[in-house]
Design a protein that fits this description.
Elements lengths: L11 H26 L14 H5 L2 H8 L24 H39 L40 H7 L14 E4 L4 E7 L10 E3 L10 E6 L20 E5 L4 E12 L13 E9 L6 E9 L2
Parallel strand pairs: 2-3, 4-7
Antiparallel strand pairs: 1-2, 1-5, 3-4, 5-6, 6-8, 7-8
Length: 314
């Protein structure tokens, strides 16, 4: 058995080799401890021990120079041969990233689609709230001129004058007498003023006996103020306020002012005539914007009609 030599008996090269091997062992121990704790990952194999012959040929000096590269990692950094490596992204990661991108795009699409749907719904609601102004259409042509009634001093007092209606048409006219009057729209007449005779009263829709108790009645189917056509307005002369009592005092050039909820229209009187109750042609429509005022005549007799025509002032 070979005797173990003391350090004094070793040559310089042998001492240097022992020192290098000791340092390598200590370094390997530290790296193994870091690897177990997850601080470093081994990426290249540990170099083999340097033969003694290489030490004698100068290789030991090279190993000494490279010794610094195997120094202990400091401040959380590993040596070049024992460093962290970034693993390449796997196909699962790429798939998850694609799913996330698709989810974000889908959310954006849903939001945009929801905004468009909400905008369309708001437009539909706004359109539904704006009701068009309906122009009533007369069921039949007038048989007699409106506002007919018996005088207040007649037997039985004031009541609709059915005697003016042809006998064979009375059932039809009576069946239409109870039809509900249309509701006034924003473009329909709501008031009338005739300064020359002091008239300033509301305008209601319909010219039946009950409507004329409330004011001046506009015949169903006639146009709105300012529009082309003949606006027919009726009122009593000796009952229910005697609104049109003094129509016979109007002269050509006098003003008839109609009001809507939006603006005012002025008509200029053209002519006045007294006709029979059956002269319904005075209610015929025209191409020009005109207004026709009708009332019973004469005062407290009421067997005729007074008709005043006025044209829209340009």
């Amino acid at each position: 058995m070979a005797r173990k030599r003391t350090p004094e008996e070793l040559t310089i090269e042998e001492l240097r080799q022992l020192l290098i091997e000791k340092r390598r062992a200590e370094r390997q121990t530290r790296l193994e401890r870091y690897r177990v704790t997850g601080r470093v990952v081994m990426v290249e194999p540990q170099p083999a021990a340097v033969p003694l012959e290489r030490l004698r040929s100068g290789g030991a000096a090279a190993d000494e120079e490279g010794e610094d590269e195997w120094e202990e990692p400091r401040r959380g950094r590993a040596a070049p041969t024992a460093r962290r490596t970034r693993q390449p992204r796997s196909w699962v990661d790429r798939l998850l990233l694609g799913v996330e991108v698709a989810a974000v795009l889908g959310l954006v699409f849903v939001l945009l689609n929801g905004m468009n749907s909400l905008r369309s719904l708001n437009q539909e609601v706004a359109s539904a709230l704006i009701q068009p102004t309906l122009t009533p259409t007369p069921l039949i042509m007038a048989v007699v001129l409106p506002s007919g009634h018996t005088p207040p001093n007649a037997p039985g007092g004031v009541q609709p004058n059915d005697a003016e209606i042809p006998e064979h048409l009375r059932p039809l006219v009576q069946s239409l007498a109870n039809l509900p009057a249309p509701t006034a729209g924003p473009q329909q007449a709501v008031r009338i003023q005739i300064p020359a005779i002091g008239v300033d009263h509301p305008v209601v829709q319909g010219d039946g006996f009950e409507q004329l108790k409330k004011g001046v009645g506009q015949s169903a189917g006639t146009p709105n103020p300012g529009q082309d056509g003949n606006i027919v307005l009726s009122a009593h002369n000796d009952v229910f306020g005697e609104i049109f009592r003094h129509l016979d005092r109007l002269n050509p050039g006098d003003e008839v002012i109609l009001f809507t909820s939006q603006r005012t229209y002025t008509y200029i009187v053209q002519q006045t005539q007294v006709v029979e109750p059956t002269r319904v042609e005075v209610m015929a429509q025209t191409r020009e914007p005109v207004v026709t005022l009708i009332s019973c005549y004469p005062y407290m007799v009421d067997d005729q009609r007074i008709v005043v025509s006025a044209a829209l002032q340009e």
